Fold these 2 entries.
Entry 1:
Amino acid sequence: EVQLLESGGDLVQPGGSLRLSCAASGFTFSTYAMTWVRQPPGKGLEWVSVISGSSDNTYYADSVQGRFTISRDNSKNTLYLQMNSLRADDTAIYYCARNLYGGSLHNWGQGTLVTVSS
Amino acid sequence: DIVMTQSPDSLAVSLGERATINCKSSQSVLYSSNNKNQLAWYQKKPGQPPKLLIYWASTRESGVPDRFSGSGSGTDFTLTISSLQAEDVAVYYCQQYFSTPRTFGQGTKLEIK
């Protein structure tokens, strides 16, 4: 059974940093691209970033480009999202998801809450 | 960036009736190399992660009830629930994965009339 478990969400001050993790199990992690998606409170889903299985390719939403870095450790079956220069509008539940068939998101974690506030 | 626009923003349908949600992309999401539309539909309930319903615009994900169907090509797509059940109350999102950033629509809130 595919399982994704996010962690690392917390309350952080504006301008601060946070690293999210997503532990994967139940599939060959290194062969799948992985994605981060977020949902601010009361708002819709927002695609954040994607990384290829080998880490050769990474892409970001304009809203996080230059502040967030996606990475993975295939030896640990873990996906990461390093978030720097956090702003109030980064407050959201962050989900990791497994990509199949070119980009559809077939498996999701339960999410981790990031709150940016002073 | 490809802009995804859903209509309507909210929808109220009686139990057992058909629900139809539309999604329009600002440019074609048909991938010529495999002739497949790079378009997915998700269901989001409060307190739960999103759930994939449909990918490639019309392929139902394993385990999804057959009352859910997707159609369309190019820039215009539709999610249809043939006979609404109480458990279908949720917000529905389309998403294109033709190009990055892989944008979502704004969501359609589906309620029982």
Entry 2:
Amino acid sequence: NAGVMQNPRHLVRRRGQEARLRCSPMKGHSHVYWYRQLPEEGLKFMVYLQKENIIDESGMPKERFSAEFPKEGPSILRIQQVVRGDSAAYFCASSPGTGGEAFFGQGTRLTVV
Amino acid sequence: GENVEQHPSTLSVQEGDSAVIKCTYSDSASNYFPWYKQELGKGPQLIIDIRSNVGEKKDQRIAVTLNKTAKHFSLHITETQPEDSAVYFCAASEADGLTFGKGTHLIIQP
């Protein structure tokens, strides 16, 4: 049973480009969470999704960031017109339901140059 | 929303000694409290968790205690080893996702 898969592991983008981060949850998990982690800091909640629905996006910046979790395929976190301040590690976690164990992927490290 | 406070931010202990990390939470409706260990360059790994109907849970050298009345829970690591060096995060969950503490950098001194 494969764990949570995130790709790419490392992503370099120039300012103004778009970044697309992908997350495939564990088999049987229908809940996906995205977190952002700055160096030497904790995990900041961004968005919580179930299949085809955004449940809570209170941690998402209002502009340039969007997330989806389609019926088929991975969850996507999209950052448009990236800026240097977007450089961080982005982690995805999945769980089978609310209040259940959540397992993390290895993260995507985004560097904006 | 939920707010989780974690202390200390850095903890240095001698190899073989015990380490204790403490967290408090604000939302009395939270009912699930996991602990994660994050090694450098890796994703957080679930190491132990506890639910609100249990006061204590143990798994070999690690244990977690929960005081619902006081809204705090703690991670205990006994007989610490070099491989225990990492950042540890507590979290609390009610219905929608996990709220994390800011993390504790545990350093095991040889």
